[in-house]
């Protein structure tokens, strides 16, 4: 029944490792997003895909690479993890690009040690 | 460029009291405005949105917000706070003209409800 689901919910890893976070939505939406929430709870968009095409790439280090195999999935791969990457990562989706009512997943809490 | 400022990072009210969470925006074009709520260890849930229709918007859980263009504000209110309203609240803005779906969030306001 979950509309936007992310896995894993918690991720603890060492510096320098490579990790992926998966996101799936069953709402039939065309647009998906990744947002980052820092330790002060500030939310900022990282990426947006519409029908598998990248439409937003905010000033994110190229260690972060999103991949959208189909419009229901948007995964986030992070290379060479750094301490500063520790945050909560939220996946979201919306029906279309112009409709910005976004539905959010539960978040993935990434801790880099 | 668009931006959102939420006045007061922490608001504390008594159960049954009025809730007022403040949000001011900056936008060179008519914006879409949103309020989201985040419960502990949860994702964000949409409370209400303004998309250029009625300026007084009613949302879920008894919340409402009024778009005031002259004051560039979109404050969130609820007449009577309930313990279950304790959460983090985010105001957000987007631009229908830029049309990327990008939400720009405020810093968030933590609402504490005292019994």
**Could you list the spans of chain A in which at least 5 consecutive residues all have pLDDT below 50?**
none
From the alpha-carbon coordinates, what is the Rg of chain B to the nearest angstrom?
14 Å
The total strand number of chain B stands at 11
- Sheet having the most strands of chain A: 7 strands, mixed
Question: How many helical stretches of chain A?
Answer: 0
> What percent of residues of chain B adopt helix (DSSP H or I)?
under 10%
What is the helical fraction of chain A, as a range of percent?
A: under 10%
Q: Tell me, rounded to a whole number, the average pLDDT of chain B.
A: 92
User: Alpha-carbon distance between the termini of chain B?
Assistant: 41 Å
SSE pattern of chain A, N- to C-terminal? EEEEEEEEEEE
Strand content of chain A: over 45%
Structural class of the secondary structure composition of chain A?
Answer: mainly beta
Write down the overall geometry of chain A.
Answer: globular
Calculate Rg of chain A over CA atoms.
13 Å
Structural class by secondary-structure content of chain B: mainly beta
Mean pLDDT across residues of chain A: 92
Shape of chain B: globular
Largest interface: A-B, 29 and 24 residues
Largest sheet of chain B: 6 strands, mixed
Structure characterization notes:
The complex is a heterodimer of chains A (113) and B (115). By secondary structure, chain A is mainly beta. Chain A contains no helices and 11 strands. In chain A, the strands form 2 sheets. In chain A, strands 2, 4, 5, 6, 9, 10 and 11 form a 7-stranded mixed beta sheet that branches. In chain A, strands 1-3-8-7 form a 4-stranded antiparallel beta sheet, with no helix packed on it. In chain A, strand 9 (87-94) and strand 10 (103-104) form a beta hairpin. The radius of gyration of chain A is 13 Å and the shape is globular. The termini of chain A are far apart. The model of chain A has no long low-confidence stretch (mean pLDDT 92). With 115 residues, chain B is mainly β. Chain B contains no helices and 11 strands. Chain B has strands at residues 3-7, 10-14, 19-26, 32-38, 44-50, 56-58, 64-68, 73-78, 87-94, 104-105, 109-114. In chain B, strands 2, 4, 5, 9, 10 and 11 form a 6-stranded mixed beta sheet that branches. A 5-stranded antiparallel beta sheet of chain B has the order 1-3-8-7-6, with no helix packed on it. Chain B is globular, with a radius of gyration of 14 Å. The mean pLDDT of chain B is 92. The interface between A and B is medium-sized, with 29 and 24 residues.
């Amino acid at each position: 029944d979950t509309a936007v689901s992310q896995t894993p919910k918690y991720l603890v890893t060492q510096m320098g490792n490579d990790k992926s976070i998966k996101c799936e939505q069953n709402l039939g939406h065309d647009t998906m997003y990744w947002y980052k929430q820092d330790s002060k709870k500030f939310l900022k968009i990282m990426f947006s895909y519409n029908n598998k095409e990248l439409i937003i790439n905010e000033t994110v280090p190229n260690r972060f690479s999103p991949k959208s195999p189909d419009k229901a999935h948007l995964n986030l791969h992070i290379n060479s993890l750094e301490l500063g990457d520790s945050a909560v990562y939220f996946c979201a989706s919306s029906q279309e690009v112009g409709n910005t009512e976004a539905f959010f997943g539960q978040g993935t809490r990434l801790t880099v040690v | 460029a668009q931006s959102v400022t939420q006045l007061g990072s922490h608001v504390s009210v008594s159960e049954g009291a009025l809730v007022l969470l403040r949000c001011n925006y900056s936008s060179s074009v008519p914006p879409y405005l949103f309020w989201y709520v985040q419960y502990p260890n949860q994702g964000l849930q949409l409370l209400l949105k303004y998309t250029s229709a009625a300026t007084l918007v009613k949302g879920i859980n008894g919340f409402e917000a009024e778009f005031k263009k002259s004051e560039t504000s979109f404050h969130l209110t609820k007449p009577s706070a309930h313990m279950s309203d304790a959460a983090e609240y985010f105001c957000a803005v987007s631009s229908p003209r830029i049309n990327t779906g990008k939400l720009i969030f405020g810093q968030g306001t933590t609402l504490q409800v005292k019994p």
